[in-house]
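Field reference: sequence -> structure
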Amino acid sequence: MKKWRQLWLVGVVMVLLTACQGKSAGNTTDEDIKEMPYRIAMITDTNGVDDRSFNQSAWEGMQDWQKKHGFQSGAISYYQSHSANDFIPNINIAMVDHYDYIFGVGMLMVNAIDQVAQYNPHQKFAIIDGYVDQPNVVSVNFLDNEAAYLAGVAAASTTKTKKVGFIGGTQTEGIWRFEAGFVAGVKATDPSVEVDVQYADTFGDAGIGQQIANGMYSNGADIIYSAAGQTGNGAFTETRNRMEQGNQQLWMIGVDRDQSAEGKWSGGNFTLASTLKGVGASIENLADRDMEKNDFPGGKTLSLGLKDGAVSLKDNQMSDKAKANVKAAEEKILSGEIKVPLKPDGK
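Structure field:
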């Protein structure tokens, strides 16, 4: 008991000193809370809620959930993490703010959720894109490799130079799924296509993403698929700059949400396709299950893929040929004829 109290006091001090609150966090009175039947919060990873990718998808799902139920603004909140040091303080302050369900968004949050959950067994948590072995935590993972395989099919069906690129954020199992699926889809469609795989070792540096994309394009790639958060935004910037300068047709493949808006340039749109992940929908479903049915799958791991409608490929600018090839590949994945690898060779 003494150890628990010490950890709690440390957590409270850290909250007071460093917690980073987001929209509608901390502005809700006790009377407001009493009038709300249910409240949910998310803790961002270091990319922020406006990363135009993973965190933003989660926040948009929470906003949709709020509108669907007609709840006040205080029913949802996000807590912005600027570094890993913010994770535990932000989780603690969300508990102090009396949120029923707290969602840790991203694999970087695993250790923080694990540490806090074990000392707060009555608080309900979910970790998105990670695994936490605690009875009060549900782990939600997506079979990103399946959607990435379809992106590989689209890339191999579209490239003119027979060279494509993949930019990963960090060397983790979550990003390996993207790489493994993409490379497998490319090679199954056209074995002669070269895939340049590079990792930025960060999810939050657009400059590095732009630098990597510059090198890939200079070496002949004409399509890049990035699974690197804000780092990937730099690849979009490099593509736009080159297109505006009159380069040959270049393409980007978006990740986690429809990134067609990121592909706009004066001559059209260079977002070939986008792999979609139902992060927001999964949060909505979990919140509804608990709020309406008292069904909290704590201690369980949910693995969601094509058959669940949790991942897919948005055919933003794809040709009819590419669409046909993608549809055929999707049907084979769903039937079990194609088994998409979860890890790249040698990892």
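Note: Residues 1-19 have pLDDT under 50 and may be disordered.
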